[in-house]
Each structure stands twice: as structure tokens, then as C-alpha cells.
Design goal:
Layout lengths: L5 H17 L3 H17 L4 H22 L4 H20 L1 H14 L21 H16 L9 H9 L12 H9 L7 H34 L5 H33 L16 H7 L2 H15 L6 H16 L3 H20 L1 H5 L3 H24 L2 H13 L6 H6 L3 H22 L9 H21 L13
């Protein structure tokens, strides 16, 4: 079920009508969350609910068994990882591995048709499988480490693993944060908290349906064409950078707002990443719940910064790339970020450059341009296409040609690109505070904020782009 669909609005209305009635009673509360979440998830294809239930039941059982048989905790954790990663690999990578092996054998003169033998059921990726398997794995890993007491209630665990606001595209909420919160009745949101939650939801929809969806068509037109100029490729890549940011952060804002209306708090997932002055800072601001997951469960266990840090960094970033999908382009995207992070670690150029406001601006611009290069791999679809686009972008000086934009119907989306940049700049200033003398007076804020939200609602109705699924649903 898409957040930006009529079905979801009907679903949300029914859920929040029932929520005040059930929220105080533990069993009713957990059952309502679990049942509503399974309806939400099963709206795509009820068969994939079985995958969610299967991996969830396995991890719940492994957590309980770790307490009963502490001497076998390592084996039980290994089984948990096998179940979760096995489901993830089967659905996400089986076709890719089979096709790659077919190509390798064909190059060696051995005909093979392994790709055709993959069951059709595995050819369709269950929405959000990468998110809920990682969330579930964090539970068994933390139980193994002794940082979390396993829950005794299957219903409690099911509500945690399936909670609909963040089920399909995060943020990835850790078990040690969400399980205790689900155990007790949530605090009734104050009027200010409800207004803030509604503001997050409205801003999230604005980001998605007004900015991201209006940029999507032009990005597809340029990247889907056989060839384009350096100027068009730079423009389309810039548009994609804002499309994916507003699409994904918009989803996270809606998820956090829905949780806020329920009385729960989800962690911040995006903190104005394009304002970063280094790639390290970028990964502290972009998809924070995933980057911190890889830090805590991959990078640090490998040795972190204490033992072979560059090796650990490369392994972590390559795995992060593969997490996004079964494609060499995602692997290349992860490798590009690993290279940029390694360069920073060796040369420490961001710290040396950012000793002044002008130097900080220059570092931010350089990081953003390098990020755009990485986005080419993410968007291109194939390595051949990615290299073609990069060759055009980096071997010719981009010459502004409004005629090219007009022929591709990109003049209108360019306006939305500028609107997105302005919205991001304004929200960055609002979040960072700034000088108290420059902030609007409280009375003015009480007027300006509702007016701004009303304008976003109108824009979401009358200026929305062609409805599309959220980009990260495919991951």
C-alpha cells in the first residue's frame, strides 16, 4: 500500500479512528498494530506476508532459545543470520547470480540456462525485505550480545517487526528502542506534538508528490535516451540527486509523523546531507538508520578504526552498495563512496580546507559534485550506461542549452528543481536555528508555519507530479 494512494488514506483513517480505543490496553494495542500492519503489507501481494511472518517467527524463536541454551548462542545467532540473509539473497540476488553465472559459462563456451530455472516467485522482490530483515537481525544480534532481553510475547515481536509506518522503507528502528516503547501505553501527544507530527507528514508528501515526482519524468527521459549532451546529463543527474533525496526523506518524514500521531518517536533519518563538508559527514546525515546499522553491526565488529580501517571501510561500503540491489552499478556506487572516504582518511583534505567559511563552502561543493558522480552509477541501470554518461559528463564542458531542456519537457521540472533547492535551504536554516535576532518572533512563527503548511497541501493537490512508488520500495 503506497502512502500516496487513496487506499492508504482510507486505511489511515480507519486505523487512527480505532487507535484511541485500543492504545491503553496492551494486547489490544499490539494486536491492532500487528493486524493493521499485515493488512498494509499484504495489500501488494498477500503471499509475501508469509516471508515476513516466517523470518519474524524464526528470530523470535532464536531469541528465546538463546536464553534457554546460552552455551549455544553462537550457533543460534548463525542460524538467525542464515534465515534472514537466506531470504534476502533468495529474493534479491538469485536471478542476478544465475544470470551472471550463465554469462560466465557462456564466455567459457559452456551453454547454461540457470536464470530460467529460478522460480517465478523469487523473481519479484517483496517490498521492504531489506529493511525488515535488517531490523529483525538487529534484535537477535543484540540478544546475543546481552544488550537486550528477548520478548516472551510473539505478538509483541510481531508488532515490532511489522509496524506499518516504517515497515517498507524505514527508518530502521532498533529493537532495544522500539520493543520497550511498544510494551507500555504510548504517551498521548500534546497539541504541539500532534501539530509537529502533521507538519512532518505534510512536508513529507510535499517532498514526494510535488518535488520528487515532478523531477522523475525528466530524469527518465535523459537516462532512458540513447545519448545526450554533457549539459543534459549533468542536469538530469542533479535532478536525480534531488529526486531520490526528496523521495526517500519524504517517506521518512511521513513515517515519523505517523508514529508521532500514535505517540511513538522514530529516529531522524536525514539531516540535510547535501550540506556536508566531507563524505564522512555525508554518511552521518544520509539514511542515518542504515549507515549506523552498518557501522554497529559490520564496520565495528570487523575492527572499526582500530584494526585495518581501510579494509573495514571498503567491506562495509561494498556491502552497503549490494544491500541496495543485485547489480554491478550498486557495487560500483559503494566502491566510489569507499574510495572517497578512503581519500579523506588518508589526506584529511576536508579538515584542511574547512578552516574558514569560504573553505567550508568549497568543501561542501566538492563533496556534492563527487556525490553526483556516484549517483550516476546508482541511476544508470547498467555499467555500460553509467560509463557512457560519465564519459559525456567529464570529457566535455557542459554548455547551457534551454532548447534541449524544452525538447525533453524539462523546463517545468527545472522549476521544481529550484523549488526543491530553496525548500531544502529554508528547512536547513530552520533546523539549524541561526541567530536569534534573525528568527521570526513566536507570534509570527505561529502564523507563518500554518500558512506554509497550507501552501504545501495546496501544492500537493494541484501541482503533484505523476504518481509513482517510492524509490526505496524496490530495496
Amino acid at each position: 500500500m503506497l502512502f500516496n494512494s487513496v487506499a492508504f488514506f482510507a486505511f489511515a483513517a480507519a486505523f487512527f479512528a480505532a487507535w484511541p480505543i485500543v492504545r491503553k490496553r496492551r494486547t489490544a494495542r499490539l494486536a491492532t498494530i500487528a493486524l493493521a500492519s499485515l493488512v498494509f503489507y499484504g495489500f501488494w501481494d498477500p503471499r509475501y506476508v508469509l516471508v515476513l511472518l516466517g523470518t519474524g517467527f524464526a528470530d523470535f524463536s532464536f531469541g528465546r532459545l538463546m536464553v534457554r541454551y546460552p552455551t549455544r548462542k553462537r550457533w543460534l545467532l548463525s542460524l538467525s543470520l542464515v534465515v534472514n540473509l537466506g531470504a534476502l539473497v533468495s529474493f534479491k540476488y538469485a536471478t542476478f547470480f544465475a544470470a551472471s553465472l550463465d554469462g560466465l559459462l557462456a564466455a567459457l563456451g559452456v551453454p547454461a540456462h540457470l536464470g530460467a530455472s529460478v522460480p517465478p516467485f523469487l523473481g519479484v522482490l517483496p517490498p521492504g525485505i531489506s529493511f525488515y530483515t535488517f531490523q529483525s537481525m538487529s534484535y537477535t544480534i543484540d540478544v546475543y550480545r546481552g544488550r537486550l532481553e528477548p520478548t516472551r510475547s510473539p505478538l509483541h515481536f510481531l508488532a515490532f517487526i511489522s509496524m506499518f509506518p516504517q515497515l517498507v522503507a524505514g527508518p530502521i528502528v532498533r529493537a532495544r528502542d522500539l520493543l520497550p516503547a511498544l510494551e507500555r501505553p504510548p504517551t498521548v501527544p500534546s497539541s504541539e506534538a500532534r501539530f509537529a507530527a502533521l507538519g512532518l507528514i505534510i512536508f513529507g508528501y510535499f517532498k514526494k508528490v510535488v518535488i520528487a515526482d515532478n523531477l522523475a519524468g525528466s530524469v527518465e527521459a535523459v537516462y532512458g535516451a540513447a545519448d545526450a549532451s554533457s549539459f543534459l546529463y549533468w542536469t538530469a543527474t542533479l535532478m536525480f540527486a534531488f529526486q531520490i533525496y526528496f523521495d526517500f526523506s519524504g517517506y521518512s518524514d511521513i513515517a515519523r509523523g505517523l508514529a508521532g500521531l500514535m505517540g511513538y518517536e522514530f529516529p531522524l533519518n536525514f539531516d540535510h546531507p547535501y550540506a556536508s563538508g566531507s563524505f564522512r559527514e555525508l554518511w552521518q546525515r544520509w539514511h542515518i538508520s542504515l549507515s549506523s546499522w552498518f557501522r554497529d553491526y559490520v564496520y565495528i565488529p570487523l575492527g572499526g578504526s582500530k584494526r585495518a580501517p581501510l579494509r573495514n571501510l571498503w567491506i562495509t561500503m561494498l556491502l552497503s552498495g549490494l544491500w541496495h540491489g543485485a547489480s554491478f552499478t550498486f557495487l560500483a556506487w559503494g566502491a566510489w563512496h569507499a574510495a572517497m572516504l578512503s581519500l579523506e582518511r588518508v589526506t584529511r583534505w576536508p579538515e584542511r580546507l574547512s578552516t574558514s567559511a569560504l573553505g567550508r563552502f568549497a568543501a561542501t561543493l566538492l563533496v556534492f559534485l563527487a556525490t553526483l558522480v556516484g549517483w550516476v552509477f546508482f541511476r544508470a541501470g547498467t555499467m555500460g550506461k553509467a560509463l557512457h554518461v560519465l564519459r559525456a559528463m567529464l570529457t566535455a564542458i557542459p554548455v547551457i542549452d534551454l532548447g534541449e531542456l524544452s525538447r525533453l519537457g524539462a523546463v517545468g521540472p527545472t522549476i521544481f528543481l529550484l523549488a526543491g533547492a530553496i525548500a531544502e535551504w529554508l528547512s536547513t536554516r530552520a533546523d539549524r536555528g541561526g541567530s536569534p535576532s534573525r528568527r521570526p518572533a513566536p507570534a509570527a512563527r505561529r502564523v507563518l508555519l500554518p500558512v506554509g503548511l497550507a501552501c504545501m497541501i495546496c501544492a500537493s493537490i494541484y501541482l503533484r507530479g505523476p504518481g509513482t512508488a517510492f524509490i526505496y520500495f524496490q530495496f
